[in-house]
Amino acid sequence: MLGAMQDWTMRVTHVVDHAAREAGNREIVTRWADGSETRTNWAGIRRDALKMAQALERLGLKPGDKVASIAMNHSRHLVSWFGVAGMGGVLHTVNPRLFEDQLEYIVNHAEDRVVIYDAMFQPIIDLMKDRWPKVEHYICFDPGPGRAEGATSFEDWIGAEDGDYRWAEGSERDPCMICYTSGTTGNPKGVQYEHRSTLMHAMAGLQSAAFAFSAASVMLPVVPMFHAASWGLPYAGGMAGIKFVFSAVNDPAVLHEMMIKEGVTDSAGVPTVWLAHFQYCDAEGIDLPPLKVATIGGSAAPKSMIERLMKSGIRVQHAWGMTETSPIGTVGGPTHDWEQMSFDEKVAKIQMQGRPIFGVELRTVDLDNFTKVLPRDGKTSGALQIRGPWVVKRYFKAEEDAVTEDGWFDTGDVGILHPDGTLQLTDRTKDVIKSGGEWISSVELENAAVGHPAVAEAACIGMAHPRWDERPVLFVVRKPGQECDAESVIAFLSDKVAKWWLPDAVEFVDDIPHTATGKISKKDLRARFADYRLPDTE
Ligand code: ADP
Q: Whole-angstrom Cα distance, residue 279 to residue 464?
């Protein structure tokens, strides 16, 4: 019989309604780019989101229309997550670090009608305005001077409304956000998150095996709101009614100060963010902030990073996912046998990417034909595939599904599945190094190398070799003021990886290129060293 339980359409506005009702006074603090700070709370976020939805309707926007944000993390950006979805629109969070051609492509492809941006990105607007013919309105999140002529200030714009608004109704399968992949091959691809998929993903993220928020949690998400829905944290945080601390700048000194001052318990970011924080603390001779939980994701968390955080008493959650998976696929935290493990065993466990959260399934298939499903034996590596309700089925405006007939999405990652469900990522399909018919994991070499006391960052790529096909070359950035040579790095690696994995050369560089999301860009590194020849092949 249908109808034994009540109807409840899964729309993301439930999150802000719940947070405002049950945790209305819980604070949302923002440190702005100009150094000023503001405080609002969940009730304030909801009130402003209602006004924003009204203001969007007044501009003539209809359900399904897209609104772009080009903004860092702050309370007004959070308002727009709910304001746009609340009027039935779709928020397109644009990564401001994309290249011009990508910015041109994605805003036009999404058909954004409104662009709301931080004043610090005014140069982007000036550069792109003529190339975005379909954008009708520009609104600036910052109140002060410095915005372009004709751009309204966000506070003035929503301030003209009374907030007497009812959220738009619609299907739970309507889109509420669109994120584009960074487009390492070809044009960026748009992934539309639906109201339902977003809510399910956020609820799954609340499990104690994942973000494990409590009402006492105070979260400073360093992961940008423009990157894969900030890992769903604003939604999960709203569900749990936590306090958020946002920083519109990513300076480690500012983050550190905010963490101490606001009593931050949880933070989340890509490894480079943590690395920068370590370097800041070392330079200042101070301890890491007294966090309870540090979530690391987006690329592999090196062993030395995990060790250092754990030794400071911080629980490390190593998460894996991608824009196409909303993004969380797996999260690694303490397992059932945690208390019986030695410190080194715990570190080794956290170095892997954790277990799937309820709702998604993983499998690996053979790297040659992508047809044979591989055993979960903790040793066989293969192409990683995923399926579940918050995994992409079809990219925005694509003509074909992006999944196999039985619904599996190929992640482009290579990994090993362990019998207890743990995922161990070993590489990306395009970065594994094929040497003499065998595979070498570039990521494992990098992770081992950053354990060297003088190494700040390392990136490994395969270079053409006449006999072996490819051989690894390691590019290393030294820590400031530290000396080390190639022999010392090789000696350090020699008891950590198989002998035939040892790099054929170690090259010292001043910097390693990063993508717009702060990950090592192997594509740019390869381009920079396109003329490189291995020492014994010259
Ligand atoms: P892009 O970096 O291409 O913009 P995503 O942010 O969606 O796109 O990146 C997803 C990819 O990042 C994954 O497919 C995987 O290769 C990598 N990744 C994410 N989390 C981890 C992790 N914890 N360990 C290793 N690699 C990771």
A: 35
Residue spans of the chain under pLDDT 70: 1, 144-150, 183-185, 537-538
The response to whether residue 318 sits with its C-beta less than 6 Å from ligand 1 reads yes
Nearest-angstrom CA–CA distance, 190 and 185: 14
> Do 281 and 227 belong to one domain?
yes
207 and 111 both lie in a single domain: yes
DSSP for 72-113 reads -SSHHHHHHHHHHHHTT-EEEE--TTS-HHHHHHHHHHHTEE
> First-to-last CA distance in the chain?
76
Hey, what are 323's tokens? 């824009």
**Which are the catalytic amino acids?**
181, 324, 434, 439
How many structural domains is the chain composed of? 3
- 422 with 447, same domain: the answer is no
For tokens 């304030």, the residue is 44
Which atom of ligand 1 is found nearest the CA of 184?
Answer: 3
Nearest residue by C-alpha to atom 12 in ligand 1: 298
Cα–ligand 1 centroid distance for 308 (angstroms)? 22
pTM for the full predicted model:
0.90
At how many degrees (to 10) do helices 42-58 and 75-86 cross? 50
Q: d(Cα 44, Cα 28) in Å, to the nearest integer? A: 9
Report how far ligand 1's centroid is from the alpha carbon of 321 (Å): 6
Residue 45, both tokens = 């976020």
Indicate the residue among 377, 408, 428 that finishes a domain: 428
> Would you state the pLDDT for residue 109?
98
Q: What is the extent of the structural domain holding 142?
A: 13-351
pLDDT of residue 148: 61
Query: Could you read off the pLDDT of 13-41 as tens digits, one per residue?
Result: 999 999 999 999 999 999 999 999 999 99
CATH assignment of the domain containing 456: 3.30.300.30
Beta bridge partners of 70: 117
Which atom of ligand 1 approaches the CA of 296 most closely?
Answer: 23
Amino acid at 207: Q
Same domain, 346 and 368: no
- Per the domain annotation, does 186 fall within a domain? yes
Question: According to the model, what pLDDT value does residue 209 have?
Answer: 81
Is residue 2 one of the residues assigned to a domain?
Answer: no
Q: State residue 97's pLDDT score.
A: 86
Q: What does the buried/exposed string (b/e) look like for 278-307 if buried means 16 or more CB atoms within 10 Å of the residue's CB?
A: bebbeeeeeebbebbbbbbbbbbbbbbbbb
Residue 317 and residue 393 share a domain: no
CA 386 to each of CA 348, 403, 406, 413: distance values in angstroms, whole numbers, following the listed order: 24, 9, 11, 11
Would you state the pLDDT for residue 268? 96
